[in-house]
Amino acid sequence: MDRNSPDFYVEESANASAAETLAFVQEMMAKASDRILPVITPRFVPTCTPELMGQLGDIAKTYDIPIQSHLSESKAECSWVKVRCGRIGFDMISEWQCCATASFIARHDVS
After folding, report:
1. pTM, entire model
2. Fewest CB within a 10 Å sphere: which of 45, 46, 60, 94?
């Protein structure tokens, strides 16, 4: 997360967050285990900039690993995302290539 979260959760930048994610993914992939698979977990659209989401989508695509996130958790979130970004969260996540075949998107559908 690189925005709209408590200070102790927010990374210093999208690049810093993506770099930490990449290091974690590489560490887990180096274990070469059939039982360990890293999963990229951006909280949701309001807490991650488009830059970060795009980078996370690229990492997931490069390493063929899933992404899990949440969408449409409340009407307030849906309104906030639409006003702030001009469209709904699912469209944005799709654009950032965060909907790989093995991804898990908990779409609460309250909109």
Report:
1. 0.74
2. 94
